[in-house]
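Q: Sequence in, structure out?
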Amino acid sequence: MSSSSSSSSKHTINAVFDFVKGGNLQPSSKPGFAHGMQLSYNTMNRANLSWDADRKALIYRYKFDASRSNPADLKVASLNPKLSLGTMTAIMDELSTNACFAVGQPSAPGLSLHMNMEWLVQEPIGHILRGGQQSTSTAVATANADDNDDAAAELDVVNVVSKLGKTVSFTRTEYVHPDTKQVLALGTHVKYMPTGSSFLDLVFSKAWAFQLYRRFFQLETVIPPTFDSKPLVKDTIGDHLQHTGLGKATFHITKDHTNPFGGLHGGCHAMLMELVALPLASSELSKKQGNARAESNGSSTYTYLKSQKIDYLSAGRTGQTIFIEADVIDVPTTPISGGTIPMRVTLSRQDGRVLSDGTLVFASADGVSAGNSKL
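A: Exactly. Output:
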């Protein structure tokens, strides 16, 4: 890399951190959902962030820390959310927004219109544990991962800005194995860029206006407040999620769950959909597969989210209690192995207004040792 390219990359990284810092200083970001994902100014690792000017790509090596998420406590399934598709959609939401700013310098945070994420590999848990190698022995892979958990829990999140528009922007996110460079999951994000505030639209559309904003808020020197870290699923989400039936739940929104504008973070939508729908999907797949689960020897099939598409229709606000409901779209009618099941999941306010509408496809895979799996 030439000295000029290195200098440009460093400038872009610094600009992105200024952007993140500005968002974290907003009242609705105290702490905000980005903090729970370890993607706030005080929790991101600057050394893990890089900029590819040729691809218009912001790349972050994300460490999926098992200590921050334990789905067993929520009785959702054996799949640890650190590698769940809902969590990966949430991470895409945050990082692709930062990528738009890196290209525009400045660019508005925007509001999510649509997000889509899907696994490109079969049986993803064991695949990632194996380091991308093609193997059918997930139990062996899990045992091997015990010796090198850190390497197994890191992926490069590559966020490419396909189009940065004044009204609508499009991004593409790839989850890439750092060693094999294989793309394991792929997502897209469509954003509506106007903020609804003429002042903020000016700040995020003109470089000179953003520089004035930086000086006024002293972004070069001020440091956002530090907050205690909590397990993302067990505490940040789980403490406010109440299951009321299979595929049904209520959720109380707090400042732990919001974006800088004070709305329910788009990534939180994604994770809630997965958490509430997963028990129902697992139950339905189990029944349609003839309950072919070898629980007696500690081995079983597991259910995981294979793909997720979400339309964002309205904003949830702090203090509201919302309703999450999952329904099966099409149930397989014959015993199958490694089958899939599509579901519709909605988040709604108490007055019936739908906040988001998702289509989720769950799949089952065999061979995970329930007692040993870290994922």
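Confidence is low (pLDDT under 50) at residues 66-81, 134-152, 293-299, 367-375.
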